[in-house]
Design a protein that fits this description.
single chain; 172 residues; alpha/beta; 6 helices; DDE Tnp4 domain-containing protein; Harbinger_derived_prot
Length: 172
């Protein structure tokens, strides 16, 4: 597993009036984070009114997978060998082979256990958002800038600094 995937919305307080309708929920960012809170991918900038599917369609993160270029991995499940990386998602994402979703109405102890574990592990991405916002108040509070490019640079900078801290803590 590479990580869990989800969208985060950052409120844009000073959004220009002409864009208010599109950015009513702020600006969206599609993130992939792993269990150790490392943020592997962040696609920032689409309007906050877009749902996770529309943001996913605009993100370049899966372009390589669609073209057949994936990280080389080998793992076994129930004695069967697999080579495709996978991501944990919630139920809104499409039913792609690379996405592992929970079971909505699990029946039987194995299905219940799978659903519980998948939902618990998938919280990594939400935990990464929480830690990112805890470390950097600028992304916790509404964005006060007028320029969307500046807001994107702030988010990217905070993610880079966050990953540097995660790496430093991992190594010590």
């Amino acid at each position: 597993m590479i990580g869990s995937i989800d969208c985060m919305h950052w409120e844009w307080k000073n959004c220009p009036t002409a864009w208010k309708g599109q950015y009513s929920r702020g600006s969206g960012t599609l993130n992939i984070a792993s269990y150790d809170l490392w943020i592997w991918h962040a696609f920032f900038g689409p309007p906050g009114t877009l749902n996770d599917i529309n943001v996913l369609d605009r993100s370049p993160v899966f372009d390589d997978i669609i073209k057949g270029h994936t990280p080389e991995v080998t793992y076994y499940v129930n004695g069967r060998e697999y080579h495709m990386t996978y991501y944990l998602t919630d139920g809104i994402y499409p039913k792609w082979a690379t996405f592992i979703q929970s079971i909505q109405l699990p029946q039987g102890p194995k299905a219940v256990l799978f659903a519980q574990r998948q939902e618990a592990v998938r919280k990594d991405v939400e935990r990464a958002f929480g830690v990112l916002q805890g470390r950097f108040a600028i992304v916790k509070n509404p964005a006060l800038f007028w320029d969307k490019v500046k807001i994107g640079k702030i988010m990217r900078t905070c993610i880079i600094l966050h990953n540097m801290i995660v790496e430093d803590e991992r190594d010590s």
